[in-house]
Amino acid sequence: MVRTTGMLVAAMAALAALPASAAGLTTVQIASASASVSYISPYIALAKGYYKDAGLDVSIANFQSGSKAVEAMMGGSVDAIAGAYSNGILMAAKGQKVETFVNFLRCPGYVLAVGKGHDAVKGVADLKGMTIGVTAPGSSTHQALSYLFVKAGLKGDDFIPVGIGNTAGAVAAVQYGKVDAMLGVDPTVTILERAGNARTIVDLRSVDSSRAAVGGAYPEGSLLARTDYVTKHPAVIQGLTDAVVRANQWIAKSTPAEIVAALPPEIVGTDTALFADNIAKMKTCYSPDGVLPVDGPKTVLEILKTSDPTLGSNPIDLAATFTNAFTDKSPKG
Among 99, 186, 199, which Cα is nearest to 141's? Predict the structure, then answer.
């Protein structure tokens, strides 16, 4: 995603201005890479009071960027992040120890859509040589797009990537033909489809369609922390895990309208019906137990290697990038 220094400063200021923890609760600060439909689980846990039930006084600051959230965590400004599982692999490649301890989004929710006027495009192979919008060059959407091209028998760079973000600018880029297609997330894709300005080619908004597209589990949104923090604060990590698993269990049995009503307005926006529709399309992606699929790390590494072949030059201990020890202890049902 597009990032600015101002966003980071604002997020850090928000964390610094938070009041002291309530008596008897342990203060925990989380940096979130996004406040989108894909990342509602940590926010639901906050809104429903599940963190407090676990003895934690949690605050979440939206950094609007996975890399900036990781930067804050590695610098000690926050305790954990809500971000993509892939961050753990990328940090391992740099010799840094970070691990996912609860996976709340078990498919990425990405959609590859082609703009109007490209009726001949039926699949990924037909997009060869075209200009395709991604949230930002080098972003997770860019990485996923490269992998989809390879899976279609093309080269990972057989397209022209253009950073278009995932807001009004992305809608305009597709609508006015600045790009031929885009790989993004909702609500952008749904807005374009409703207006007849885009057509879906590949949909990763469900577990089954995601597995079919990439050939394996593709875990995304997770809570991650430095391995030394996980080791030193197991009770905190267990509390965070229990709260997020509980949130996803509530999401599973609630209607999209009920979920929207539980979220703060700054996350949902003004079009509540659109946000509810986005949740409905993503419903199977929200993990019911927070367990990271054991075949997921290998798939994610292969996706990352498509964009950065150097990741394969040195062995990465994938088992050290996640743990299911805490989800295994979380209450079920």
Answer: 186
At which of 203, 237, 253 does a domain end? 203
* Residues 257, 180 within the same domain: no
Domain boundaries, position 164:
111-203
C-beta separation of 145 from 76 below 8 A: no
Residue 118 identity: H
Q: How many residues can be counted in the chain?
A: 333
- In terms of Cα–Cα distance, which of 150, 147, 141, 76 is closest to 113? 141
Per-residue pLDDT reduced to its tens digit, 243-280: 999 999 999 999 999 999 999 998 898 999 999 999 99
DSSP 8-state symbol, 138: T
Determine the 3-state secondary structure of 29 from DSSP: strand
Per-residue DSSP letter, 272: H
Side chain identity at residue 322, one-letter code: F
pTM above 0.85, yes or no: yes
Q: How far apart (Å, rounded) are the C-alpha atoms in residues 157 and 173?
A: 20
Same domain, residue pair 262 and 184: no
* Same domain membership, residue 101 and residue 233: yes
CB 59 within 8 A of CB 29: yes
The number of domains in the chain is 2
User: Rounded CA gap, 221 and 34, in Å?
Assistant: 10
CB atoms within 10 A of CB 255: 12
Residue 212 lies in a domain: no
Task: List pLDDT tens digits, range 99-113.
Answer: 999 999 999 999 999
The residue type at 48: K
Question: What percent helix, strand, coil does the chain show, rounded to 5?
Answer: 45, 15, 35
